[in-house]
Write a structure and sequence with these properties.
Length: 203
């Protein structure tokens, strides 16, 4: 019998949350649907109603992560529809905050542990939609002369790479204390992006 650790009808989310905790602590090698069931307080067979195997669970975790990232990115950017520079500032910082506030999910999303990504259409769609939102911001910045001309998709990868690299270093404690004693993560992020920005620097 299922325990009362989750609300009725929310078993799928309870399993996803349990999977995140196990992956964060033990890695993909420590993940199993049996462990997930135990952590969620349900029968060993309960997860199979939603996930046929652990790869499908990892796909679900990553999919929900990208949906949340998209929502937070869109919410940060949308108020500045007529100000591309502010879109870039707000979007960049929203990405960093998502990573810092949802570290376990963030690490799973970009861990490479999901095999055969194309077998999971929901994951493909959520990650594609998120990247296209980044491309939209980059293209708006290019049209406004904030970012240099280039194929928008390639420049979006560069912007994303700058953000992702810095926040990953920060999360892993790999940025020297000599730097962190003088500059905040936000200042470090915007300093990197300002190497790409034309005109007034981001703040």
């Amino acid at each position: 019998m299922a325990s009362k650790k989750y609300h009725h009808g929310d078993l799928k989310n309870a399993l996803i949350q349990a999977g995140i905790k196990i992956l964060a602590k033990e890695g993909v090698g420590g993940l199993s649907l049996r462990k997930v069931a135990k952590k969620a307080g349900v029968s060993h067979s309960a997860p199979y109603a939603h996930f046929p195997d652990k790869q499908s669970l990892i796909a679900a975790i990553s999919t929900e992560g990208f949906k949340q990232l998209y929502a937070e990115l869109d919410a940060a950017v949308s108020p500045y529809a007529n100000d591309p520079r502010r879109q870039l500032e707000a979007g960049a910082w929203a990405y960093v905050q998502f990573a810092m506030n949802n570290t376990d999910t963030f690490n799973i999303m970009f861990s490479g542990v999901l095999e055969k990504e194309k077998d999971y259409p929901a994951f493909v769609e959520s990650s594609r939609k998120t990247f296209e939102r980044v491309v939209d911001v980059v293209r708006a910045c290019q049209d406004a002369g904030v970012l240099r001309p280039a194929p928008a998709e390639l420049l979006a990868v560069s912007v994303w790479g700058q953000l992702h690299g810095i926040v990953s270093l920060a999360l892993e404690g790999q940025i020297s204390h000599v730097v962190l004693d003088r500059f905040s993560v936000r200042e470090i992020v915007f300093s990197a992006l300002n190497q790409m920005v034309l005109g007034n620097p981001l703040s």
